[in-house]
Specification:
Order of helices and strands: HEEEHEEEHEHHEHEHEHHEHEH
Low-confidence stretches: 16-33
Strand content: 5-15%
Length: about 450
């Protein structure tokens, strides 16, 4: 009799906790509030992703991991649980598995980091919700830790903080990569993020399998090319620092993929002479020991705006081939095309230049994956839900409003899933939109 009472009590407790977690995630629209009882062992099961040479693998069973994903940088800053939940749900419905987003907002209105080491708990809870909801949708996140650009504070905000503290810092944002006080600010931020205990799940970020990887900085560039050595040293230092706190997650830089002036044999791959003067170098930056995979962006419409569609096709094909080959044979690491963006241009025959160019990236990633080589995936920039005009840019779209693009995304998800099933020799049924196609 006593055993039955305990069993009944346990079931009631599970039901109550499940309801409270559901209620707290469904109520409100600002990433906080509601009653929460965060219990780590109640979270959906996921495994961590690691790498084996040039391939991503599931660390639980060693099976290959291929990525079709997207960018929604606004998940933290939107202030809307509904948008976050709906975007993650739609990503899952399209068979996508990884979303890249900002895990920073430095200074200014609604900042996560108000000043060095001082955080807005309400905004931190919004980031908690993003991670919690991603796991509920079986989506993994690439979390970027700072912006090279001024949007949401960026490295310039760190420089201003140091100046306000009386440090002898030049006005150049290049100081971000070399000044010890500023590097200390950034390290403290890393520590605060990695050791954070999620208020929704109770899981510390460094133990959260829904986090795919940490990205050091979005699109690092310098004002002066003489700062290249400082950027290289900064990447080495910060990647190593993350690994001292977090052995579970992958780390990447966040590069655009430009080749530096010393890569004479690769300069013709760059979109123009200007690209070699921005301080970064794809092979050197990505070769750092604690950088686990290479990251590349692709914006032919912005980088070569006067080029014809045919010229953009040739350029993009060469750009992807070069980075896949260098990742396979030089770096011996996976490569992820973490921002792939195209203007929303409609031609008279109702085909999109975007779809033609996106298909090039998708096809080349798939062919590389099929050969068990370094091409590991691509993330389209960027996806939205309805009503988000504030966050729209020239490259964003609500996928379901553009049926050809929507279909292209799903097709890529499904053929990568089919490739996984073949290699893993799994009998598990295909999931999501691919269940009827595979």
């Amino acid at each position: 009799m006593e055993r039955r009472v305990y069993t009944l009590f346990g079931l009631l407790l599970l039901i109550t906790v499940g309801y409270l977690n559901w209620y707290s995630s469904s109520s409100g629209s600002n990433g906080g509030g509601g009653i929460r009882i965060p219990i780590p062992w109640l979270q959906p099961r996921m495994g961590f992703v690691g790498r084996n040479s040039t391939r991503f693998v599931d660390l639980d069973d060693g099976s290959p991991v291929y990525i079709n994903g997207w960018n929604s940088y606004w998940l933290l800053s939107s202030g809307s649980k509904d948008w976050v939940s709906e975007m993650l749900r739609r990503g899952r419905e399209m068979g996508m598995t990884v979303c890249r987003t900002w895990a920073f907002s430095d200074g200014g209105p609604n900042a996560l980091q108000i000043s060095p080491g001082r955080f807005d708990e309400h905004v931190f809870e919004a980031l908690d919700f993003v991670i919690y909801e991603a796991r509920r949708n079986h989506i993994r996140l690439i979390l970027c830790l700072v912006n090279n650009l001024n949007a949401f504070g960026g490295k310039a905000q760190y420089v201003r903080w140091a100046q306000a503290a009386g440090e002898n810092v030049t006005t150049s944002s290049d100081s971000f990569f070399s000044h010890p006080t500023i590097k200390g600010y950034y390290k403290n931020y890393i520590k605060a993020i990695l050791t954070r205990r999620n208020s929704y799940s109770g899981v510390r970020y460094f133990d959260e399998p829904a986090i795919f990887a940490w990205e050091l900085i979005n699109e690092p560039r310098c004002v002066s090319n003489s700062s290249a050595s400082h950027l290289q040293a900064w990447i080495t230092e910060m990647a190593s620092y993350i690994k001292t706190w977090d052995k579970n997650h992958l780390v990447t830089v966040g590069l655009e993929g430009f080749y530096g002036p010393q890569r004479t044999e690769r300069l013709n791959i760059n979109p123009g002479e200007w690209a070699a003067s921005l301080c970064s170098d794809f092979t050197q930056n990505s070769a750092v020991e604690h950088i686990d995979f290479a990251s590349v962006h692709a914006y032919p419409d912005s980088w070569i705006p006067r080029a014809s569609l045919e010229e953009k096709i040739r350029y993009l094909s060469s750009w992807v081939d070069s980075h896949v080959n260098d990742s396979e044979h030089v770096l011996r690491k996976p490569v992820l095309f973490s921002e792939v963006g195209f203007h929303r241009t409609v031609k008279k025959n109702e085909t999109y230049d975007r779809d033609i160019l996106l298909k090039i990236v998708y096809d080349k990633v798939y062919e590389s994956a099929k050969k068990e080589q370094a091409g590991a995936g691509a993330l389209i920039w960027q996806l939205m839900v309805e009503g988000m005009q504030t966050y729209h840019d020239d490259f964003s779209l609500v996928a379901r409003r553009h049926p050809p693009t929507y279909k292209l995304i799903i097709q890529q998800s499904c053929r990568l899933q089919k490739l996984f099933r073949k290699e893993a020799k799994t009998s598990i049924k295909a999931e999501g939109p691919c269940s009827k196609l595979l």
